[in-house]
Amino acid sequence: MKKLCFLIISSALLMSCNSNAQKKSKEEQFPVQKTETEWKKELSAEEFYVLREAGTERPFSSPLNNIKESGTFICAACSHPLYETKNKFKSGTGWPSFDQPIENGVFFSTDNKLGYTRNEVLCANCGGHLGHVFDDGPKETTGKRYCMNGDAMDFIPTKN
Ligand SMILES: [Zn+2]
User: Fold this and answer.
1) So what CATH class is 32-157?
2) Model pLDDT for residues 76-109, shown as the tens digit of each residue
3) What are the residue ranges spanned by the domains of the chain?
4) Distances (CA, A) of 39 to 43, 49, 99
């Protein structure tokens, strides 16, 4: 049943995206535009693999998993603010998880890499791949689980 709901929701999302007759390609709509060669120079190998090649880091590998102090998670490529610690929750998946992004922080796309449609989450500023969003998040807040790669983000603690 859960799977069926997910399918219905994702195909609805897919249709609503298609009906918007987007003229620009996915890459063209981001304010920050760089070539893959430029990104390769600026990013570490791990960052490039996640952000530009849509890779996934090993679970429990990111130090950002354990961050509980107040602050902002920013894009590792362009420093765009993405998430706040107050929206982080313990998902047990081994990837930093949030129930909602900062307003205008992220951009949604879809991918079928695993043979079914997943809602992909990209940085709204540079288009870098961050992770995916699922509908099994905390019910008491948004019900969403933004499953992020720590390699795609940096953490800026709030200054007191
Ligand atoms: Zn970015």
Assistant:
1) mainly beta
2) 999 999 999 999 999 999 999 999 999 999 999 9
3) 32-157
4) 6, 11, 29
